[in-house]
Structure to design on (259 residues):
């Protein structure tokens, strides 16, 4: 297989949760540019439909499915709809996420639970449902979107989001554990850990704290609109067929810097 063929996703079917805007939309576009058909899942179906029109202009099929990843029935409907429409689930990108900021010593436990239910529990239950289909197929790729925030602590002035950080750290370990457990079924489980990317969820905070954030990044800039497209295609394609349980850091060198 040549290098170009190794990255080709023509005929593959990819689910992207939280795929209607932000990092999810960027990754969905990258997958479509590589030839994959897309299932865009989020709670706001209208936004999913909007990005599907953009994806179909790239020459692939794309459908919108309403999904709350923290709800088991909603997750199962997403998998069932994908199989019904495309006959397969080749790629699952677990991108949907939620955060809440508050002082850790006074953090409201209902918000803690809400973050954990979506970012960790929901991610796991959807992965299991996809893995059942992938096991029958004998192959599949799951890519979890974690965060550089899952690698350690953050100063409260910059990121006062303790359940988000904890959930993303747990996703890193979950990625490695599922990679070991599911390798025998031909299921690859990897993760992407983005650094600071301006999105609908983080844009306001990043703009406010840019003076603290930029010095933490050796490349001296925030993540951009093209920076996750190639990494998601790499981990979704045959180009990464000897890689599983890996966390690909896409953070401008932030995690490599000491002090």
């Amino acid at each position: 297989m040549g290098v170009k063929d190794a990255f080709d996703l023509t005929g593959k079917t990819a689910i992207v949760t939280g795929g209607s805007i932000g990092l999810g939309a960027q990754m969905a576009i990258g997958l479509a540019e590589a030839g994959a058909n897309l299932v865009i899942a989020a709670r706001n179906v209208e936004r999913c439909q909007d990005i599907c029109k953009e994806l179909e202009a790239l020459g692939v099929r794309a459908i919108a499915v309403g999904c709350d990843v923290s709800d088991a029935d909603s997750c199962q409907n997403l998998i069932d709809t994908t199989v019904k429409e495309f006959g397969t689930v080749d790629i699952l990108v677990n991108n949907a996420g939620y955060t809440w900021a508050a002082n850790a010593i006074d953090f409201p436990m209902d918000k803690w639970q809400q973050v954990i239910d979506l970012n960790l529990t929901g991610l796991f239950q959807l992965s299991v449902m996809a893995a059942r289909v992938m096991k029958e197929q004998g192959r599949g790729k799951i890519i979890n979107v974690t965060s550089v925030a899952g690698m350690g602590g953050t100063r409260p002035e910059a990121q006062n989001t303790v359940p988000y950080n904890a959930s993303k750290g747990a996703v890193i370990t979950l990625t490695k554990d599922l990679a070991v457990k599911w390798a025998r079924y031909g299921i690859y489980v990897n993760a992407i850990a983005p650094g600071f990317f301006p999105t609908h969820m983080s844009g306001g905070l990043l703009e406010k704290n840019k003076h603290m954030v930029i010095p933490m990044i050796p490349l001296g800039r925030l993540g951009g609109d093209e920076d996750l497209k190639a990494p998601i295609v790499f981990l979704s394609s045959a180009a990464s067929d000897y890689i599983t349980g890996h966390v690909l850091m896409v953070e401008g060198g932030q995690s490599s810097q000491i002090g």
Remarks:
- The radius of gyration is 17 Å.
- Strands lie at 13-17, 37-42, 62-66, 91-94, 140-145, 187-194, 247-250.
- The mean pLDDT is 94.
